[in-house]
Write a structure and sequence with these properties.
The chain folds into two domains: 91 residues, Beta Barrel (Elongation Factor Tu (Ef-tu), domain 3); 71 residues, PRC-barrel domain (SH3 type barrels, Roll). 5% of the residues lie in helices and 46% in strands. It contains two helices and 14 strands; from the N terminus they run βββββββαβαββββββ.
Length: 180
Amino acid sequence: MGEPETSATMAVGKITGCYGIKGWVKIHSYTDPQENFLGFGQLQLRRGRALEPVEFDAGRRQGRGLVAHIVGVDDRDVAESYRGLEILASADSLPDLEEGDYYWHQLQGLQVWCGQGDERELLGTVDYLIETGGNDVLVVKASDQSIDDRERLIPYLPDDVVTRVDLEQGVIEVDWFLDE
């Protein structure tokens, strides 16, 4: 069957349905811009807990999303069996980012601290991020050491709300108000 997912893979999109009758599928790309999805090399699909290789031999923007053809799939009924599957890429195949830019998966799990120096308070850890259109939002869940048990939604605004990201130390520092 497939291989178990490793930390070296990350979700880059999801098959949301069929397009036409010749095995094309609609894809919701998690990349920005969307077309970057079409540039990845080896891709895998997640079926339950197993991974299986997948190859797209053609793809293009269609309306507000993407459509692509899966190699060896030339029938709408077969393509339908791929609906809802997440598409994963090797983290090694992701393009390098400019300094100060991060992939979402790099921010997940980082501790979020508020304040400076000895006056810092741990708010929790980044559970996931939300894309809102205007800016991304960090969903920060409380941890055993955090100041309270609240979940916080903190805008990811570098040099404004987010004052420092240190991947090596596993820390994000924010200029954020503490709710009473």
